[in-house]
Design goal:
single chain; alpha/beta; Carbamate kinase; 2 domains; eight-stranded mixed β-sheet; six-stranded antiparallel β-sheet; 15 helices; binds adenosine-5'-diphosphate; binds aspartic acid; binds magnesium ion
Length: 441
């Protein structure tokens, strides 16, 4: 059984949806995970924001715009009059639901219910299109099996048990071939409310589903031919990497390579399920295979993670006393705020975080242990490769490439596969471009 996830651009138009239908099969067992059509989740965020700030006429205008787009998609997607009619009825029902929120009080839970509509619509459209094409498929509601716990982490046991239960409803299909279509990104929380796995979360859904059904492979179909050695949004002349290890891919995804959701590699790594990245526009391209195999020493790729805040706690008296770091870390733990980088000296410790929800409260508590300084608008640049730090001279190359920038922190030796450097956000693009030079030396 394989899991195939198609991202926003891959289902971004009627033509792209037709192409997805050509790429999937019901003669082998497949679970197809879809994102919302590109631009939809952003539009739904804007609608929810307008409703939240009680700008109902703006909300209505945005809703009408989006509805018009979907009606156009339906008219292009289906050729049969009956299917066009059913497609329009489907769009009507989702948009009537969204419009119902313009009449009432709007809360955060309703915002998430609105955000879920994108994936619910794209999967319903593909399912209906397959029916028109006389291709048998089954729509599996992700809200029946995908769940997060109180910490916002996936509840793997619940997911496995409930997904199995959903699949068992179709014993003949589950046993042999069978094309199952489900929504990425959306889930329920512990209270049963509609929630989500955060922006870009469809990759994470695919990986959690792959693990739950012990898939032979998780395929992430997107708009580029695999993982590139550098961020193609900021750097020209990047190239796709044929193979990456789980550890390399996990570091790159966590440290900002947008092609994969930051948490999506870890579950696959733990279950040892290969992840293949493929391009929907050029399906014949090899893409990237991410697996447990280490393949070739040396430099593989660079990624950058924005929105980082560095926090320095300076305390000559206490720093080296045992238990001091524990107390500092406990502050972050209490506020459920993960730390990305750490550096220490005799008199100070610096850490970075990207979630600043509780920054003020964290600072208040840290002041008890020393003087606290904050640097916001930082970017972590992460250089990744198999056994990278065992490559003599690698750090020299990295530092040489970055010699014109202020380096706020460097993390070396935490992982054998990566070197992380903290720079000012405004230097990110230039730093990534400058680092592209080390791939050819
Ligand atoms: P999807 O909608 O399919 O989930 P995303 O936009 O989330 O697609 O991810 C694909 C995009 O990620 C690419 O178009 C590219 O601009 C961006 N990207 C950032 N870093 C990398 C990288 N190292 N390799 C490939 N793509 C990357
Ligand atoms: N549709 C969601 C988003 O745009 C999830 C995803 O595309 O992965 O963030
Ligand atoms: Mg994505």
């Amino acid at each position: 059984m394989k899991v195939l996830k198609f991202g926003g651009t891959s289902v971004g138009s009627s033509e792209r949806i037709k192409e997805v239908a050509r790429l999937i099969h019901n003669d082998e067992k497949q679970v197809v995970v879809l994102s919302a059509m590109s631009g939809t989740t952003n539009a739904l965020v804007q609608i929810a924001e307008a409703l939240y700030s009680k700008k109902n006429s703006k909300a209505n205008q945005l809703i009408s715009q989006l509805e018009k787009k979907y009606k156009q998609v339906v008219s292009e997607l289906f050729s049969d009059a009956e299917f066009k009619k059913e497609g329009l009825a489907l769009i009507d029902s989702h948009f009537n639901y969204i419009k119902s929120f313009t009449q009432d009080l709007f809360t955060i839970h309703e915002e998430r219910a609105i955000l879920a509509q994108g994936e619910l619509i794209s999967t319903a459209l593909l399912h209906l299109y397959l029916q028109e094409q006389k291709i048998d498929s089954i729509l599996l509601p992700a809200l029946n099996f995908m769940r997060i716990d109180t910490n916002g982490e996936p509840d793997n046991y619940y997911i496995k048990e409930n997904l199995e239960r959903e699949l068992e409803k179709y014993p003949d299909k589950s046993a042999t071939g069978g094309l199952f279509i489900t929504q990425g990104y959306i889930c329920r929380n512990l209270y049963g409310e509609v929630d989500n796995l955060k922006r870009g979360g469809s990759d994470y859904s695919a990986s959690l589903i792959g693990v739950a059904i012990n898939a032979e492979e998780i395929q992430i179909w997107t708009d580029i031919s695999g993982f590139h050695n550098n961020d193609p949004r900021y750097v020209e002349n990047t190239y796709p990497i044929e193979r990456l290890s789980f550890d390399e891919a996990a570091e790159l995804a966590y440290f900002g390579a947008k092609i994969l959701h930051p948490s999506s590699v870890q579950p696959a790594k733990l279950a040892n399920i290969p992840v293949r990245l493929k391009n929907t526009i050029k399906p014949e391209d090899p893409g990237t295979l991410i697996s447990g195999e280490a393949n070739g020493k040396g430099l593989k790729a660079v990624a950058a993670k924005d929105g980082i805040t560095a926090i320095k706690i300076k305390s000559g008296r206490m720093l080296l006393a045992y238990g001091f770091l524990r107390k500092v870390f406990e502050v972050f733990e209490r506020f459920k705020t993960p730390i990305d980088m750490i550096t220490t000296s005799e008199v100070a410790v610096s850490v970075t975080i990207d979630d600043t929800t509780y920054l003020t409260a964290i600072m208040e508590e840290l002041k008890y242990y020393g003087a606290v300084e904050i640097d916001s608008d930082q970017t972590i640049i992460c250089v990744v490769g198999e056994n990278l730090i065992e490559q003599k001279g690698m750090i020299n190359k990295v530092l040489e490439a970055l010699k014109h920038f202020n380096l706020r922190m460097i993390s070396y030796g935490g992982s054998r596969h990566s070197i992380s450097i903290l720079v000012n956000a405004q230097d990110k693009k230039e730093a990534l471009n400058s680092l592209n030079g080390i791939f050819s030396t």
